[in-house]
């Protein structure tokens, strides 16, 4: 007999709500859990929405508070990365260290085998093991952010929305009478009010943000910046430097509080180094893979030049645009299955 108990991570949004509904329709014994990860008045609104959905479809909803751990594991990481001149990617870190880990632990406590969320991604079988892969909704597919989830947790995940488009999910929710069917999507980074991360950093670490020089690679001063944490490699807008042609951030120097600017050609790279965080399949030197260096970019055919423990060096057939330290590089095969993931260094 197939174990039909599942714990669904819910947020009060249409995706997780529809995921819970679909699993209930498929005969699963569904329990919902919603986490409070950070200080935000909006949590109570999301909690009420999730409660309404739980009552509508007839499931138990559990609330858990992990604000302290989220601060330590995600927010502190976020701040530290910016202080080091890197551009953090908090969603994969949250998925790895908090969201899926906490759902799995709660499922264990309740004696529940399966866990599920409303992410747009697929789980496929490959040579007897489960693999993460793209969902059919290419523009919404979230496998990039899920690529650091460890295999033991991946083995028990269900993604009910893998075969649906966002528009279809809304229609399912509306037909099911879920009040959240037309609810707006959440902001990019859940703990950043108004998506203004620089303002967030100024409030959290005001004693560590100072004005500094904007310089060229040759050392010529061409402007001033309000704090190097406001910038990311490859950035063009908001630099405030006029040199007769578009300027891009080509370097961040925390030790001297400088931003280095240059031409677009100076942010292009064929070779990059990656610190491996997760391997579903061993990445081998000499082999070619599809590598994606940011969520909304296309993957590039790339060859692994060297592997030293967890450090990889790869070379792409075509130049990457602004490979950014701190961001994820995700390795795929030709079937859009995730093979590995790591941080650009």
What does this protein look like?
It is a single chain. With 345 residues, the chain is α/β, with parallel strands linked by helices. The protein has three domains: 189 residues, Rossmann fold; 53 residues, SH3 type barrels; 77 residues, Translation factors (Elongation Factor Tu (Ef-tu), domain 3). The protein is built from eight helices and 17 strands. Strand 1, helix 1 and strand 2 form a beta-alpha-beta unit. The mean pLDDT is 95.
Entry keywords:
Rossmann fold; 345 residues; 3 domains; Elongation Factor Tu (Ef-tu), domain 3; five-stranded parallel sheet; six-stranded antiparallel barrel; SH3 type barrels; globular; alpha/beta; 17 strands; 27% helix
Can you lay out the helices and strands and say which pair or pack?
Layout (H helix, E strand, L loop, with lengths): L4 E5 L4 H12 L3 E8 L5 H16 L2 E6 L1 H17 L6 H21 L3 E3 L5 E5 L2 E5 L9 H4 L4 H4 L2 E2 L7 H10 L21 H8 L7 E5 L4 E5 L22 E6 L4 E5 L5 E12 L8 E5 L7 E9 L2 E11 L6 E5 L5 E7 L1
Parallel strand pairs: 1-2, 1-4, 2-3, 4-7, 8-11
Antiparallel strand pairs: 5-6, 8-9, 10-11, 12-15, 12-17, 13-14, 13-16, 14-15, 16-17
Helix pairs in contact: 1-2, 1-7, 3-4
